[in-house]
Structure formats: C-alpha cells, structure tokens
C-alpha cells in the first residue's frame, strides 16, 4: 500500500538517505507529524522518542533501532516512536555527535592531555579495526551523559507537542460531532414542522 510503484535503484536510495528529494525541512516535518499522530499517551510516545534520541548518541551504528526499541519496551514507551527517535542521528548530526562523545569520553577517562587520537585518521587507516577499541570506549562512555541530556530535552519537547496536538485534534472532532448533531437536529425539526 505504501510502496513505490517503481522501485528506486540502490544509488538513488543512498542519495535519498543522504539528501531527501523533498528537502530536510519537509522530511523533518513529515517525521514529526507522524510522531504526533501515533496512538498512545503523550508520555509513552515521548519516552519512545527519547529512547531513540539517547541511542543515537552511542557509536553502535546498525543497532540503533534495535537498542532503542528494547529501551522503549523496558520503559514501556511507544516502540514505533523509538524508531522515529533514532532519526536524531543522521548524516548531518553524526559528525558533531561523534566528536563530542569522543571528547567527553576521553576527558572522563583522563586521556585528554596525554593520549589524543585523530578520529578521521583512525577511521581512514588500513589498521582501523585494531585502532577502533581506543576510540570506541571513550565514545561509548561519552555518549551516556550526552545521550541522557538529549533524551531529557527530547522527552519534554515531544510530550508537550504531542499533548497539544492530541488536545487540538480532540477539540476538532468534538466540534465536528456537535456540528453534525446540530445539522441532524435541524433536519428533524424541519420534518416535524411539515
């Protein structure tokens, strides 16, 4: 039902993932509208999105959605909202996130002065696998406080937005019901007068 009629070529899919055809602003608006329309309480939806935002700060690419769903399930949040929350991490936000988590993690480990690793050199090196652990540990440690901060901010923003959307939607539905009821009552009164 929601599939494309003509399947995209893998290079076109990659392009869409890195730079959406509709633009980042519309893509972001689409995702947030989908989050607001999810069924559930504002709290459960916000917990799910916050779990996804937290996991986006971890260096475990490829497992973000799985970990976010597990965390949301444990915290009784919305699982689909957790998957949406992982979109906090995207090709534009990952570089600053990675550098911030590595810097904070190396400071927490006390490595900032005597052991500095150039992250771009490590990832481009032919011995990258051997050099990943000294980078992964500080990034994983630094992702915890930064991810928690992002999750708290995301929780309150999403909870407020979803509550406002659901309240406005409920008021619109009530207004439609009252208008329809008034139409029906007016129709019955006309029939009685004849």
Order of helices and strands: HHHHHHHH
The residue fraction in helices comes out at over 70%
Poorly predicted regions: none
Number of domains: 1
Structural class label: mainly alpha
Any idea what the shape is? elongated
End-to-end separation:
49 Å
- Strand runs, count: 0
Strand content: under 5%
Largest sheet descriptor: none
Number of helical regions: 8
Mean pLDDT: 83
- Radius of gyration, CA atoms, in whole angstroms: 24 Å
Please, could you describe this protein's structure?
This protein is mostly helical and 194 residues long. It has one domain (10-158). It has eight helices and no strands. The chain has helices at residues 10-18, 24-36, 42-56, 64-74, 79-85, 94-108, 119-124, 128-193. Helix 3 packs antiparallel against helix 4 and helix 3 packs antiparallel against helix 8 (128-193). The chain starts with 9 loop residues before the first helix and ends with a helix. The mean pLDDT is 83.
Brief summary:
The protein has 194 residues and is mainly α.
Label this structure with key terms.
about 190 residues, mainly alpha, about 0% strand
Give the helix/strand layout.
Blueprint: H1 10-18, H2 24-36, H3 42-56, H4 64-74, H5 79-85, H6 94-108, H7 119-124, H8 128-193
Helix pairs in contact: 3-4, 3-5, 3-8, 4-5, 6-8
